[in-house]
Write a structure and sequence with these properties.
About 45% of the residues lie in helices and about 10% in strands. It is an alpha/beta fold and about 400 residues long. Strands 1, 2, 3, 4, 5 and 6 form a six-stranded parallel β-sheet that branches. It comes from Blastomonas aquatica.
Length: about 400
């Protein structure tokens, strides 16, 4: 039987001093209350987010992962001090590449960009060995977190930089890549995208070979941003479970980036996990103030440091004043709860798209994430189930991926 904190307090007030003298200082009821306390649970469990776009901030002049920033000042959402305050143990740090032309020049530029971002990830980890550590196996996460460091898995959003040579995928694997999605915004050489013109009827022949190569190497396949048909084919072809690193349920909002319940059930039936995104949970809202600043933001890198900082603060203020949608923390949790009710707690996780456009009112930066643990516990999940949502499910998929690669 689990007691609420109020119930435990009432029992404690009713106890006599004589009983207090003859019973242990820590009663089973008190221990149970401590075990259920949201702050204590959040501190105790392993917390991972599967889609951290934060490496892109390393392009900002003078911006460092070890410095304290604030979404109200520069729009960024993740750094080491805020991870410590919010109790985020780490996650999958993204090599994101925007889609460009499918030709030799486009592929070469994309590859150069992806390698630059990969090296930036390695560099900030190497520069702060007391705070961060690269992880390449499922077992690494708990070991790294237990040492007081933050976990850095590497993921790739968009397979465009691979060009037409899948040997590049193995090269990235050798440099630490452990999760990859074939496509982003726009159909590419591997797959049709949710918002691109369907060219391949799902996966291209190269995309199907990419799935097999990811299985062979031991890379988690990420189907976020893939068209429904591409998702169906990845799910059918992969010999290991796949995930959606930052997606949502279409039942809450009918958006191309979200998936319908039948597809989510198919994902779970094969052992996969949906990591809930904080985007696309309600219709977009007009943002005239934000739109008016976009031309100036396009030139921000040419400005002197003081003007750049002032413009960034103005941009941050405009984004907070005019959110992209009416979604808030309760709406985000509604998406989490819908998927838990639909699929069971073993197939749901957290991938809020931090520093990639994510965040909603009440959940604006990584310091806010203890509220997720609190809401999960209030819904009736046990601490062990909460840990599944935060890390256990994605790591279980990773173990299966490793087994398939081993075979």
């Amino acid at each position: 039987m689990r007691f609420s904190s109020l119930g435990v307090l009432a029992l404690a007030l009713a106890a006599s001093s004589a009983v207090a003298q003859t019973t242990p200082a820590s009663t089973p009821a008190a221990q149970d209350a401590a075990n259920q306390d949201p702050a204590a649970v959040h501190e105790r469990i392993l917390t991972l987010d599967t889609h951290l776009d934060s490496p892109a901030n390393l392009d900002r002049p003078g911006w460092a992962m070890t410095d304290r920033h604030d979404v109200h000042d520069d729009t960024t959402q993740v750094d080491l001090p805020r991870m410590i305050e919010g109790g985020l143990d780490g996650g999958f740090w993204v090599i994101y590449t925007g889609q460009g032309p499918s030709d030799a020049t486009g592929y070469a530029r994309a590859l150069a960009h992806a390698l630059k971002r990969l090296h930036q990830i390695h560099d900030f980890v190497a520069a702060t060995p007391e705070s961060f550590s690269l992880a390449t196996t499922a077992a690494d996460a708990a070991r790294i977190a237990a040492s007081g460091k933050r976990v850095v898995y590497v993921s790739m959003e968009n397979g465009y930089p691979l060009g037409t040579d899948l040997a590049n995928l193995e090269a990235f694997y050798q440099l630490g890549l452990r999760m990859a999605g074939p496509v982003h915004n726009g159909t590419n050489q591997l797959a049709d995208s949710t918002n691109g013109d369907p060219v391949h009827g799902g996966l291209s022949d190269l995309g199907k070979a990419w799935v097999k190569e990811a299985n062979r190497l031991g890379i988690i396949i990420d189907a976020s941003h893939a068209s429904d048909t591409s998702f169906d084919q990845m799910l059918a072809l992969s010999k290991a479970p796949i995930i959606l690193s930052h997606s949502g349920p279409k039942a809450l909002h009918d958006h191309p980036r979200n998936l319908d319940d039948d597809r989510l059930k198919a994902l779970a039936a094969k052992g996969g996990v949906i990591q809930i995104n904080s985007l696309f949970l309600s219709p977009n809202l007009p943002r005239p103030g934000v739109d008016a600043l976009r031309p100036r933001m396009a030139e921000i890198d040419t400005l002197p440091p003081a003007e750049r900082a002032a413009l960034m603060k103005e941009w941050a203020k405009a984004n907070l004043a005019e959110p992209g949608s009416a979604s808030d923390f309760d709406r985000y949790m509604a998406a989490v709860f819908h998927c838990i009710d639909l699929l069971g707690v073993d197939h749901v996780g957290i991938g809020a798209d931090w520093d990639g456009g994510g965040g909603v009112a009440g959940l604006t930066q990584i310091t806010d994430i203890p509220k997720i643990t609190q809401a999960l516990l209030a819904r009736g999940l046990t601490p062990a189930e909460v840990e599944k949502v935060w890390s256990g499910n994605v790591l279980r998929v990773m173990v299966e991926v490793e087994k398939v690669a081993g075979r």
